[in-house]
Amino acid sequence: MNPWILATRPRTLPAAIGPILVGNALALSLTQFSWLIAATSMLCALLLQIAVNLANDYFDFKSGIDTEERLGPVRVTQSGLLDPSKVRNAMIACLLLALLVGSLLIYHGGWPIAILAAASILGALGYSGGPYPLASHGLGEVAAFIFFGLVAVVGSYYLQAHDTSVAAWILGSAIGLFNAAVMLVNNTRDIPTDAKAGKRTLAVKIGEGQARVLYQALVYLPFALVIGGFLLGTLPGLPVLLGGLSLVLARKLNSEFSQTSGAALNPLLGRTAKLTVIFSALFSLGLALA
Q1: 3-state DSSP call for residue 215?
Q2: What residue ranges do the domains of the chain occupy?
Q3: 161-165: long-range contacts (C-beta < 8 A, 24 or more apart)?
C-alpha cells in the first residue's frame, strides 16, 4: 500500500465522518439548510482527522514512543517508509488546508465557529505534541469525546441552524462515546509498549481489566442516551429505532474485546470505528425519513 495512504490511517476516518453526518442530518429539515456548508464541514473534519493521524505518527516517533516493538499497524515514520520531515510538512499542510476550507465555515458561522476552529487545530497539535501531550496524560479518550463528538455534532448543527439544541448535545455525546471507544481500543493494544515508553494513556493507568469494563460502557451508553432522548420527547422514534439496530454490532464487539489483547486488537480498532459510522448512518437515515 502507498505509504501516504497508510499515514492517513483510513480505518480511523469514520470517526470524522459519523458526527458530521449526524449533525447535518439533524438540521436537514431546516429551511436554511445548505448542502455546501454540509460538504465543507465534512471535508474540514476529514482534513483535521488526517492531520491528527500525521501528527501522532510524527510526534510519537520523535518522542521515542513508537519503536520496533510496536504492536499496532505500520507507522510510516518509525518504519522508515517516509522521512519525518515529510510527515511533519504534510501535517502542517493538512492543518493549513483545513483552515483554508474552514474559513467559509467561520464566515458563515461567526465567532463561535472561529473559536471551535482554533480549539480543533490546537487539539490536533496537542494530542501527541506540545509541552503537555494529551495522549500521554490519559486524556486521549476525553479529547476524542469532545472533538469528535460534541464539537463535531453540535458545531455542524450550529452551522446550519445558527443555534444549538438538546438533541444535538445528546447525539454529540453518544457519538463522542463511540469515538472514545475507538481510542480506548488503540491504547489498550499498546499498553505494554506505551508503559515502557512512559506514555501514560488512560489504558495504562487503569489496566487492561478496567479498560474492558470501560469499553463496554462506551459502546452501550450511546444507546441509553438516545433512548433517553426519545423518552424525553427530544428525539423522534424512527432514528432511535434504526440507530438501535447497530446494538447487535456493539454487543459482538464488546464480546470480542473482552477476550482479545495485544496485536489481535488491530482488526477490532477498525470495526469499532465502523460502529460509529454505521450508527451515524442509520440514525441519519431515520432523521431524513422522520
Answers
A1: helix
A2: 9-289
A3: 161/27, 161/30, 161/32, 162/32, 162/109, 165/26
